[in-house]
Every structure is written in C-alpha cells, then in structure tokens.
Amino acid sequence: MKALQHFCTITRHKILVMKECFQVGLYRQGLLHDLSKYSWTEFKIGCKFYQGSRSPNNAEREAIGYSSAWLHHKGRNKHHYEYWIDYGLDGEKGMIGMKMPVKYVVEMFLDRIAACKVYKGEEYTDRSPLEYYLKGKGEYLMHPDTQALLEKLLRMLAKEGEEKTYRYIRTNILRKRR
Hints:
Elements: H1 2-24, H2 27-32, H3 40-48, H4 56-64, H5 68-74, E1 85-87, E2 95-97, H6 102-120, H7 128-136, H8 144-160, H9 162-174
Antiparallel strand pairs: 1-2
Helix pairs in contact: 1-3, 1-6, 3-5, 6-8, 7-8, 8-9
C-alpha cells in the first residue's frame, strides 16, 4: 500500500511542477522534472519511509543518519541548489554555492510551490513556500545571486500571487536569457 501511496504522491508532485513549468515556458524541464524519483534507488526508500505529510527522505535521515535517496536525487537534478555546491576558487576555501543557471532557479522555485501544495493540501497559501524557505534561511549553502532570485520570487508569490509572478518570470526572467 505504501508503494502505491508514494507513487501517487511523487506523481502528483511531478504533474504539478510540469504544469507550472509549462506556464512559464520551461517545457523540457517540466517533462523531465524529478524522473530520478522513479529509479529504484529513490523509489524503494520513498516506499519504506512514506508518511504522506512530509518527504520520506527526512524519515530515512532520522532513522540512519543520512538519506541515500536524497544523495542520489540531488546529484541528478539541477534544480536543487545542493547540486551546485563545489569547492571555491580564487582563495575561497571549502565548499561554496555556485551560481545556478536562471532556468534551474525558476524550476527550484516551482518545485517548492508544488511540494508545499502536496504536503500542506488545503492549508496551502501563496505564502507557504516563503514561510518554509524562511525557516531554513541562513542555513543554505547557496550562491548569493541564486538566493536573491529565489527569495525575490518567493516574496513576489506571497504578495502578488501565482498569475502575476509567473507572468513576471516569463517576461522579465526567462525572456532576458534568450
């Protein structure tokens, strides 16, 4: 039963992100979003730790100290800022966040919206993704430009709503890069 529930949850999430990507013109990314969740490496963990109200990766992390599914996922999906963490150059020591291409920042933004819609259900508001982001602010190892764009879009969504934010993304964010 958990396998079917997990499949339905990740498929619902994928379809939501796909629809949102299509609304802003990211058709290829919408089609390919999160396909690794259907790989056995990620899917089996999702089934084992499925709860329905949060990511099974968090439950796996609590159980064994890390999430093998997350480590697999973030290394294959460029819309996660963690994919873009690398060693610094020019005197910067340690790991730092690299600047993400804008199309992946937009996909990350849309991914956060869809995740909040799936896990919050009827309690979702356009402010939910911003509130979730702010809980972890200061903990993200994200390039300042990437973080600034993500936060700008989250704040715009909270204040202006989806329609106006998506129009802004189409006309001011994605059109500029063409």
